Amino acid sequence: MDGLMNAVDMMEFLRISRSTLYRMSQREDFPRPVIVSGMKRWRRDEFESWLRAKQVAAAGLSPAG
Questions:
Q1: Which of 4, 30, 31, 56 is the most buried (most CB within 10 A)?
Q2: Segments of the chain scoring below 70 in pLDDT
Q3: Distance (Å, rounded) from C-alpha 19 to C-alpha 37?
Q4: According to the model, what pLDDT value does residue 59 have?
Q5: Domain residues of the chain, as ranges?
Q6: Rounded Cα gap, residues 27 and 60, in angstroms
Q7: What are 1-10's contacts with CB under 8 Å, separation 24+?
Q8: What is this structure's pTM?
């Protein structure tokens, strides 16, 4: 399960609260979680790709760099 992150992992990594994670997860562009044994988990690689795209956009660069 190394490739999956739970809500606590996401909150710690982003330094956000649970309510902020919930609001972010409602956005269309936020990575969708997968359900594992009834629990939400986010794929680490999808989350990291989403985060890189946000950083590139914030810097005003093209994805190719």
A1: 31
A2: 1, 61-65
A3: 23
A4: 86
A5: 4-59
A6: 21
A7: 1/36, 1/41, 2/44, 3/43, 3/44, 3/45, 4/34, 4/36, 4/41, 4/42, 4/43, 4/44, 5/41, 5/42, 5/43, 5/44, 5/47, 6/39, 6/40, 6/41, 6/42, 7/40, 10/42, 10/47
A8: 0.78
pLDDT number for residue 64: 59
Contact 20, 31 (CB under 8 A): no
3-state secondary structure the chain: CCCEECHHHHHHHHCCCHHHHHHHHCCCCCCCCEEECCEEEEEHHHHHHHHHHHHHHHHCCCCCC
Residue 35 has a pLDDT of 95
List the strands of the sheet with 4-5, edge to edge: 4-5, 39-43, 34-36
The size of the chain, in residues, is: 65
